[in-house]
């Protein structure tokens, strides 16, 4: 094989590293007066954003933070979070976005495992830090984040955030360093064991951002995020950098609205008052918004929503569409940074009405540029892209995490044979449209056949009296497993298990499902257990259902 040609660069040529600081260059150029909004508390422009990031960098350095240190952050979605997304990694430190919804024991584990040096903590989380402070092994001090005043605390506080910024210099010369340096770290929870540390480099985050700028805005007829949009995340900023969109929005210089603590009615009011046009969230959060009091009189026409994290059911998508929302499905994982797939409508789908597009919009979408994807069977053989064959999704892309922090064996399992293994079962059709069938661990195996819990959930959700649903498999001595469904009804609507069985029999008659796929147990419940990021917690549901079976 012949060698590739490499030409030495000219003397003095600058080798441009892909660092997060480069993402800050354009926003203030294109839209210096555009707003960054924090709920009903604060607003400032991009010039101020850039200055505050430089002041924060100085404040951190003055507090003793140096390159290679880890800075933990516990806050609601705010302008401060956005500033930390930039300032911390730009000085060469690592930003640990702490999952504030984990148990105190898990928060303690993640902070010690990450070896956090300095902690930025909102006043609401001071009691949590006070509870575990004595067991934190590496933390040297805390910076207090206050919206109103600064309550007293016994923690070793280095200062209050705004006060530190006010007395810090507005200039900072951010250095160049290796683009493969770790920029961010967060922890993802699995079905067993402690949370795993997922990390990303500057290079990966810059490439993911550039790819998302194009993917979200370039395709005619399906633009999600353009320069005249108003962006409000409804995915916690501690979770995969709010899907990376704050980096995208800042590069583009668009108006950004950070809602603070999530409360459905306040989210609807912010959407109305700030004229929000694009958001992203998990389906359970969308359902909460649709069901809240403020939504009854709200006009959601044109609100573009990217849904991911768990399957978007037909029922929820249809309800949102009827309110004027434009729903799009996305696919990714904590380990993928996360954007991998996105809704992509083709003719004649794009010519249909919004209601008629629902079936296409709830599919997983098409792999975005620069993503290699295939589906493989249990023996590692590639399955055909015929829309019928199923297999596990495996991936390659330049922004996928390279492993888990301090867990090489887990990382090797994730990257078996040089492909990232997702644990998701899917089909891919001839046009590249991906349809997730189920998580590998959530597929229900009954009588030698597989039942997709996601498909059953979507079919049940089409009943007009169903607000949300979860389907899991539980052990059965005769069939191996059998499906059981938990259903939350629409407020004010009467619903009974027998009605849902009749509803599902219609799909048996049409050939959509087999009769043995109808759950033998359908329970009407007030709520369905969720994970810390709002996904349906099927592991906990299975545990609780097994406990119910014990005589």
Characterization of the model:
- Helix 2 crosses helix 3, helix 7 packs across helix 9 and helix 10 (264-273) packs across helix 11.
- The chain is 29% helix and 23% strand.
- The protein contains 17 helices and 25 strands.
- With 551 residues, the chain is α/β, with parallel strands linked by helices.
- It folds into three domains: 20-200, 3-Layer(aba) Sandwich (Rossmann fold); 263-438, ANL, N-terminal domain (Rossmann fold), CATH 3.40.50; 444-549, 2-Layer Sandwich (GMP Synthetase, Chain A, domain 3), CATH 3.30.300.
> First CA to last CA: what distance?
69 Å
At the fourth level of CATH, the homologous superfamily of the largest domain is: ANL, N-terminal domain
Q: Quote the CATH topology of the largest domain.
A: Rossmann fold
Please mark out the parts with pLDDT under 50 across 5 or more consecutive residues, or reply none.
none
How are the strands of the biggest sheet laid out side by side?
12-13-14-15-16-20-19-18-17
> What about the largest sheet?
9 strands, mixed
Overall mean pLDDT stands at: 92
The count of β-strands is: 25
Specify the CATH class of the largest domain.
Alpha Beta
Instruction: Specify the number of helices.
Output: 17
Radius of gyration: 24 Å
**Helix percent band:** 25-40%
The number of domains is: 3
**What is the annotated CATH architecture of the largest domain?**
3-Layer(aba) Sandwich
> What structural category arises from helix and sheet content?
alpha/beta
Q: Describe the global form.
A: globular
Beta percentage is 15-25%
């Amino acid at each position: 094989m012949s060698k590739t040609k490499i030409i030495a660069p000219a003397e003095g040529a600058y080798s441009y590293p892909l660092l997060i600081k480069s993402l800050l260059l354009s926003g203030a150029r294109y839209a210096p007066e555009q707003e960054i909004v924090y709920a009903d508390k604060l607003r400032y422009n991009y010039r101020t954003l850039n200055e505050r990031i430089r002041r924060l960098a100085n404040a951190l350095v003055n507090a003793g933070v140096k390159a290679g240190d880890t800075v933990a952050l516990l806050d609601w979605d705010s302008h401060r979070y956005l500033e930390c997304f930039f300032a911390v990694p730009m000085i060469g430190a690592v930003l640990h976005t702490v999952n504030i919804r984990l148990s105190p024991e898990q928060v303690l584990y993640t902070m010690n495992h990450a070896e956090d040096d300095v902690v930025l903590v909102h006043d609401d989380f001071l009691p949590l830090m006070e509870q575990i402070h004595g067991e934190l092994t590496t933390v040297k001090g805390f910076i207090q984040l206050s919206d109103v005043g600064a309550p007293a605390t016994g923690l070793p506080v280095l200062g209050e955030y705004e006060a530190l910024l006010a007395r810090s210099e507005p200039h900072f010369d951010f250095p160049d360093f290796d683009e493969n340096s770790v920029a961010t770290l967060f922890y993802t929870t699995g079905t067993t064991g402690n949370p795993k540390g997922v990390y990303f480099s500057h290079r990966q985050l810059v490439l993911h951002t550039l790819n998302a700028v194009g993917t979200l805005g370039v395709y005619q007829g399906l633009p999600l995020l353009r320069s005249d949009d108003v962006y409000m995340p409804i995915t916690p900023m501690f979770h995969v950098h709010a899907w990376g969109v704050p980096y995208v929005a800042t590069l583009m210089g668009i108006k950004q609205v950070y809602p603070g603590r999530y409360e459905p009615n306040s989210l609807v009011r912010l959407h109305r008052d700030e004229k929000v046009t694009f958001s992203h969230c998990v389906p359970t959060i969308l359902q909460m918004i649709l069901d809240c009091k403020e939504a009854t009189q709200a006009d959601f026409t044109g609100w573009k929503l990217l849904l991911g994290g768990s399957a978007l059911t037909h029922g929820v998508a249809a309800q949102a569409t009827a309110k004027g929302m434009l729903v799009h499905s996305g696919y990714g994982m904590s380990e993928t940074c996360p954007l991998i797939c996105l809704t992509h409508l083709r003719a004649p789908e794009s010519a249909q009405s919004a209601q008629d597009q629902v079936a296409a919009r709830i599919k997983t979408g098409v792999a975005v540029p620069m993503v290699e994807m295939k589906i493989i069977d249990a023996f590692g053989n590639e399955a055909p892209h015929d829309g019928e064959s199923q297999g596990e999704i495996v991936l390659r892309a330049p922004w996928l995490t390279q492993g888990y922090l301090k867990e090489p064996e887990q990382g090797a399992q994730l990257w078996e044979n040089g492909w990232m293994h997702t644990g998701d079962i899917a089909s891919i059709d001839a046009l590249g449209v991906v349809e997730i069938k189920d998580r590998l661990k959530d597929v229900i195996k009954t009588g030698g056949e597989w039942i997709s819990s996601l498909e059953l959930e979507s079919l049940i959700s089409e009943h007009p009296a169903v607000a949300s649903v979860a389907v899991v498999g539980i052990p059965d001595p005769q069939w191996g497993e059998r499906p059981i469904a938990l259903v939350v009804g629409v407020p004010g609507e009467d619903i009974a298990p027998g009605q849902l069985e009749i509803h599902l029999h219609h799909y048996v008659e049409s050939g959509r499902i087999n009769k043995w796929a109808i759950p033998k147990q359908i329970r009407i419940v007030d709520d369905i257990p969720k994970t810390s990021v709002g996904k349906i917690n099927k592991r906990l549901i299975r545990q609780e259902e097994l406990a119910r079976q014990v005589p």
